[in-house]
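Q: what does this look like with zinc ion bound?
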Amino acid sequence: MGNWLRKVMTGRYGVDELSRFLTVAALAMLVLSMLFNNGFSLLFWLLAIVSLVWSYFRLFSRNTYKRKAENNAYLTLRYAATRKITGVKQRLRQKKYYRFYKCPSCGVTTRVPKGKGKIRITCPKCGESFIRKS
Ligand SMILES: [Zn+2]
């Protein structure tokens, strides 16, 4: 890394997970814009430019406090998204052997074995019991 570059980057925010995501997203948008031949093409191209400009703006930003907050917001979102996806995946895998019911009183989802006929389900959270066919 050259001396001038170190000088330029002093006090700047630099790269974090959000910038990395933005760069990858920009590349993906560019590829998508090449795949489409209509209005979507322009839309994806614009999104790619916006993502790139945003990631560069963050890279050279001196407001590290605000950039850190943005990154944290992104990480929280990503965590929630991956948790939801793994939840759905798990449920799909278990669908063969279990049925899922929502508690009518508190909304919590409970898992019961499949093929047991009519059964009384007791909610593990609020204790409400309800009858369902499994
Ligand atoms: Zn409940």
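Residues 98 and 113 are 4 Å apart (CA to CA). The chain has two domains: 5-9+11-89, 95-134.
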